[in-house]
Amino acid sequence: MEPKMRRGARLVLSPLPFxxxxxxxxQLASILHSKGFSIxxxxxxFNSPNSSNYPDFTFIPIPDGLSEIISSISDPVTFLSxxxxxxxxxxxxxxxxxxxxxxxxxxxxxxxxPCLISDAMMHFTQGVADxxxxxxxxxxxxxxxxxxxxxxxxxxxxxGYFLPRSDSELEMPVTELPPLKxxxxxxxxxxxxxxxxxxxxxxxxxxxxxxxxxxNTFDDLEQSGLATLGQQFPIPIFTIGPFHKLxxxxxxxxxxxxxxxxxxxxxxxxxxVIYVSFGSIVSMDETEFVEMAWGLAxxxxxxxxxxxxxxxxxxxxxxxxxxxxxxxxxxxxxxxxKWAPQQEVLAHPAVGGFWTHNGWNSTLESICExxxxxxxxxxxxxxxxxxxxxxxxxxxxRLENCKLERGExxxxxxxxxxxxxxxxxREIVASLKGKAEVCIRNGGSSYQSLxxxxxxxxxx
Length: 460
Ligand code: UDX
Fold this sequence. Notes:
Keywords: Transferase. Belongs to the UDP-glycosyltransferase family. By secondary structure, the chain is of the alpha/beta class. The protein is 42% helix and 12% strand. The chain contains 18 helices and 13 strands. Uridine-5'-diphosphate-xylopyranose is lined by residues 18-21, 23, 141-142, 249, 253, 257, 277, 279-282, 306, 339-340, 342-343, 359-362, 365, 380-382.
């Protein structure tokens, strides 16, 4: 039986306006909606989600003052810091209005707003929620292990880990966080690394004083990280993933997915295709792009490659960049699209490997479809995810060189796709896929954690 209050409760959720964050927040909203809650999404005008795909939700845009100046902000830390300043007043005004609209005044049954659920990186929302005496639950869209690494930045900084390093020093272990190497520690392409560390510190501290942390992960995958997190963060923690097994990511896509690649996959042999995508933000220089193209072609494995606008730095159109002879060489062997229905692609029987940047959504989607990975992380949490994929879960191998080089790419693709090592990874990832399926079923760890989350929300 549905708890009495649930039908009268409206949850307010607020995502960070990037694909890798919007998707899990809207999936979480869909999960909670399926449990009887009404949903309001407060979002920035910049990268606003496609509300027409969610007719049951209320979407409220707030002015962020960013859309007008976004093209002049090249530094991601500047962007995130501005976002956390510019949104305070419009977000607060919006929340105040919602709270006043839903408060009961004549004894008739009205909706209550038990709490706010916001992305960890929208750290300003903690102060706003506190000022309105509204509990805030935090959605951390990355892995637990990467969050622990962000939380360790102050200690690691004190120990000198973030000082400039030689190539050999980058290969040294981080003894406090095995099996990470120095090169796996979070970085961002910023002019002001100090501001990046401070921003991460604020995100972690504001999460620590929240009313609970929600993760898109599952216990069998991050058991030891979960135990450590529980010691460091004495607040309720809810591991209710994988979200995409409950609600697909497609409806939250900011770009149009080109479905023609599915018919192409239909013509390919089982587990023969390597799917290649670096998510929504990663970019590379032209030289690396050319190395990537030749590495793929020389591997002789069929591939499906997502080449989205902006993948190559400073070039919105990739067509002129194809190296001479490349398109002729891959004729029939390669399918190239601007954006793919990724979840469907990973679930397709023809796909046998995923060359990824290890954004957390991609990593989890790959694990849950039983697809081993070739890892090429770029920034932020991706290096930690990649290290766990290759060295802890052993469901992928990592391109260790900083620069992409066609020979290493060709060899690695063949290890993943045709050699025994790749087959072993495929077996391990198939078993993790099975565990992910069990955990969301009645009685599984994520199922139970979702029940706990609902109880927590109803207790506010
Ligand atoms: C960002 C950060 O880069 C990442 O490190 C962090 O963990 C989350 O935020 P992004 O780079 O976009 O995310 O990567 P990822 O987390 O993998 O999310 C990409 C999403 O886009 C996935 O859900 C994926 O299914 C979807 N996608 C990707 C498509 O639908 N089509 C594509 O062609 C590529």
